[in-house]
Here is the input.
Amino acid sequence: DQQVKQNSPSLSVQEGRISILNCDYTNSMFDYFLWYKKYPAEGPTFLISISSIKDKNEDGRFTVFLNKSAKHLSLHIVPSQPGDSAVYFCAASVMDSNYQLIWGAGTKLIIKP
Amino acid sequence: DAMVIQNPRYQVTQFGKPVTLSCSQTLNHNVMYWYQQKSSQAPKLLFHYYDKDFNNEADTPDNFQSRRPNTSFCFLDIRSPGLGDAAMYLCATSRVSNQPQHFGDGTRLSIL
Here is the structure.
């Protein structure tokens, strides 16, 4: 049972445009959400997070939106740059839980010049 | 720079031959995690330590063991690797449970 789903295995976006990566979850107990970025042959790197008390968190070019009623979150990257080409993982957890992050399968973002 | 270091980056072993992967951290984080990741799949948590307290995920095979001799080091032992254990193994740390996890670059394990 996949509790965190990233339904798009890949996404191609023109440099300078907005990239929107989507993530859906099924467990209403999740209250903390994170996005990680992974380059080939490297470990995932933490990008941005949001707790369920917020519906938006922004850090430079990266903004995460949370829609609790739809159990949906999205990561917006604007403007997209070639260095943003990577696999992006969405992860969720219950903050008072046993440390476990539940991960999506990832979306490969390709930024075209 | 404070970091999470995994050695080796690539490991080849024979079917059934025990193998140990290592992870060290200079972040002085309390929690250390081991994940298994296969191609195009989400990372799968195998176990974690909070300080010396070991927590095994229910579906982690008995073939997988871990040791944390001190705060800085954590080891993953695979007692009798099978072909299905070929994967990327990721080590991660966090200061406490609800903080973002910091990952090493992983060890890619191949089984001959």
